[in-house]
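Subject: Sanity check before I submit

Could someone independently write out the C-alpha cells for this chain? I want to compare against mine line by line before I put it in a report. The sequence has 481 residues.
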Amino acid sequence: MATLTLSSFATNLTFSSLPAPVVAAAVNSISNWAGCAIGGFAQAAPQIALAASGRAFSGPPTSSILGLNGSTPAEPAFADAQVAALVNGIASHVDDYDDTHLATIIHPAGVVASALLAVAEALSSSSFSLSSPSPGPDSSKQSEHEEEESPSPVSGQDFLTAFVAGVETSLSLGLSVYPEHYDAGWHITSTTGSIGAAVAVGKLLSLNSTQMQNAIGVAAAQVIGMQVAFGSMTKSFHVGRTSSGGLLAALLARGGYTSSPEALEANYGWLHVVSTRENATAQLAQLGRVWEIERNTFKPFPCGIVMHPTIDGCIQLHNQSLSDGKSTAEISRVDLRVNPEVLVLTGQEDPQTGLEGKFSIYHAAAVGLLYGAATPEQFTDEVVRNETVVGLRNVVNVTTDDGVAEDEAYVMVTFNDGSTLEKHVEHAIGSLANPLTVEELKTKFMDQVSRQIGGARAENAYDAFTNIGNMTDVGKIRELF
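---
Independent answer below. Compare away.
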C-alpha cells in the first residue's frame, strides 16, 4: 500500500492544510537551495553539464539556469525544463552547501526544487498545459491544441504545496530504509529524490491518484547514486539527474505511461530491492501528522555535514589562540574525537582537489584552524594543495567514539611549547539544537550569490525567493533579479 499511500497523500494535500511552521521551513529550504544553485554554478560540474546538454539535444528554452541568470549578455540563461532541472540540481549540490535532514542525511530541496521551478517556468511560458493529454490516434491534434493554449501560471502557494509533498515523500521513504540502505553504499539523496521530484511535479500538474502511482513507479525505476562518487563531480550529478528523471516520470505518467501500482512495496519493488529492512507502513502512516521538513537543517560549511562539529570547534580554537597570543603556525598536533561516521564518510587523508577536500576531516580541521573559516574559498583545488594546509592536516589525528553524537566533537590542539587548547562542541552550528538564524541564512545566501551575480541582484534574488509564497506566477521569479 506504500505507493497508494504516498499517491493519496500528495494528491489530497492542500496549502490550507500546511501548518505555518511547515510553510516557513519550506520557504527557508527553497531560498537556501536557490542560493546554492546560483553560487554553485561557478563550479565546473554544472557548466560541463550545460555544455554537454547543448541546444542540439534540447527543446525550447523555457526554464532558467539560475547561476547564468543574465550574468553576461553572451551567455544563454535558459534551457528546456529537463536540462534546467539537471543543471540547477547539479549546481545546488556541487558545493555540498545545501540543506540536510540529519535523521537520514538526505539533502531534499535540490532534487525537488530544481524540477519544480523548471516546470513552473515552462508552464508560465505556455510550452505545455496543465491538462493531461490522451494517447491515441488523435494525440497529434492534442499536441497542436496544447501549443495554442495560454500560459498556466503556478502560484506561490501551489508551488510550496507541491514542494512539501515532494520533500515529505523523499524523507519518509528515507526514514523507511535508513540506515541499512545508506550503509549499503547508496546515496540516499538521489535514490529517494527521484520519487520526491516525481511526486512534487505530479502535484503541480494535478495528476490523479492513478497517474501519481504511475509517476512513482517510473521514478522508482531510476535508482541512481553510490557513495563511491563522493568527492567527485558525479556526486552532484546524482542530484541533477534524479531531478530531471523525476520530472520526466511525472510527465510520462501525465501522458498515460504506466507502471506497477505496487512499485514501492512489492517483493521486487523499490523498498525491498534497495534495502535489507523497511518500515514504510509505519513511517508513511505519519504523513500529514509529522512534518519531516521541520527537521531540515542548513549547512554553515560547504562540505560533508559530519565534519561540521570539528570545523565549529577548530574555528573557535583559531579565535581563542589569536586572543591568547598564540600562532597557528606553532601547532604541532591536532587530536579529534568524533562519531564513527566521520571516518566512514569523510576519511580522505590526502585530498588533491577541492571536491575531495569536502570529504576530508583532515582538511576540514586544518582550514578551520588556519583560516578561522570554512567557506567555498577554503575548498578549492589551490587551498587543498597549499603547503601550509597540507602540513597542518598531516598532524591531525582522529579517534572515533560511539559515545560521541553526530553533531558533537572534541578538539585538542597542542603547540610547540607543549601547551594545549581544547574545545568540546556539544551541538555544532547548523544542527537542530543550534540552527542558523534568519540573519545567518541571509548572510550565507548573499555570500554565495553575490560572487556569481553581484550584490544588488543578490539582494533582489533573496527577496524574491524568501517571498515566493506571495507570488501569483512563480514562473516569473527570474525576472525579479
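---
OP: Matches mine. For the report I'm noting this point. The first strand starts at residue 63 and ends at 64.
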